[in-house]
Amino acid sequence: MTRKPIKQEDPLGCGVACVAFVTGVSYKTAKSKYFKTVNSAKTTGYICKDLVKALSLSGKKYSYNYIKYKRRFQNNTIAFIKRSKRYPAGHYLAKSKFGWMDPWINFNIKDPNPKLAISGFRKRLPGRPIYVIFPTQVRVSSKT
After folding, report:
1. In the chain, which residue ranges form alpha helices assigned H by DSSP?
2. What pLDDT does 1 receive?
3. Predicted model pTM
């Protein structure tokens, strides 16, 4: 079964699209079920803590960390790339076995209209990741 990339439908909805991709639901479902402040995708965007909370509401256990150095990422990890000229607000992408799911792969700073957004997979991140949102395992005690 191949998962299709999820297109972001709001100017700052890349985090919502990544949560939708990881949880296997549509963008609209993720936005309405897992994000309390749905208008943030239009105005301010979301921080890592918001995505961890949304993933928790979906039944998944995730944490996040600031990262300084290059590292390998496991599937279903979400990375936030640093703000830059190309991505003035930064950008979230989700790792899968097909590469990095980019919810707005054709982003153009000169015409940032989410109605023109196309999602797809990339081999590499389009910028330097500074935060990683990763699945955490629930540890089971071996004590009897």
Report:
1. 14-23, 27-34, 40-43, 48-57
2. 42
3. 0.90
